[in-house]
Amino acid sequence: MEKITIMIVEDHKLIRETWAFILNKDEQFQVIAECGATDEAVEKAELLKPQIILMDINMTPYTGMEATQKIRQCSPSSKIIGLSIHSQPAFAKRMLQSGARGYITKNSSTEEMKTAILEVMKGNKYLCEEIKEIMSAQLLNQPDTQAVHQLTDREMQIIGCIRDGLSSKEIGEKLQISLKTVEVHRHNILKKLKLKNVASLVNFINSSGSYL
Hints:
This protein has 212 residues and is of the alpha/beta class. It is 52% helix and 14% strand. A six-stranded parallel β-sheet has the order 2-1-3-4-5-6, sandwiched between helices. It is elongated.
């Protein structure tokens, strides 16, 4: 069976060598290059045309995302899988937008790394379980924007004041209502929008300009 050729791009030598050792023990894979810098990675990718490139995104002299874009130009047949300590979906999205075919975190298991390589070789995209779980949690915890129409005019006024950074006392003074009344309105707003606390309300206001 022909082995899948792999290049590892990671600035920590111990991690590079560990990954190479693990992958080379599997008869499906052959690590043909290891790079500690992205300029070297681009040069070796163009010369060796590895089938898979494991790319750390926090690299120098330019980022793994920039290196991915450069490699996609000089070695378009190479399929790149982003590797990172970052588990925020935004990093995975940016890496995929740069041309990568997969993204796994450094919390991923050895078996998941191998699964990612095999799936990407089949032509599929791959996101590790950690990223998918976080994305699912974010979707489940999204506020109900359809509930905005349930808000009263006074509640909309208070949301506007919160967006302007006013405290409950300042809101009361501006709208000429008591502090207790402001707090009741804030409680009702959270309940209607299915939000847990004021911090989540602020996040909702900042991300829902088109609804408010």
